Automatic annotation (TrEMBL):
<protein>
    <submittedName>
        <fullName>9962_t:CDS:1</fullName>
    </submittedName>
</protein>
<dbReference type="InterPro" id="IPR036910">
    <property type="entry name" value="HMG_box_dom_sf"/>
</dbReference>
<feature type="region of interest" description="Disordered">
    <location>
        <begin position="1"/>
        <end position="25"/>
    </location>
</feature>
Length: 47
């Protein structure tokens, strides 16, 4: 995942949960990325 997207989304998670630690916010971002349709690994390849 690109550093820019991680940083941007970490800020979003922090805004949603102001008391969450940075480490935990990053874990949430990573989980969301894993399941995201924006993740190239989740995009269906046309054959």
């Amino acid at each position: 995942m690109a550093k820019e997207k991680t940083t941007k989304r970490s800020g979003t998670v922090k805004a949603e949960n102001p008391n969450v630690r940075h480490k935990d916010a990053f874990k949430i971002v990573a989980q969301r990325w894993k399941d995201s349709t924006e993740n190239p690994k989740n995009q269906v390849q046309a054959k």
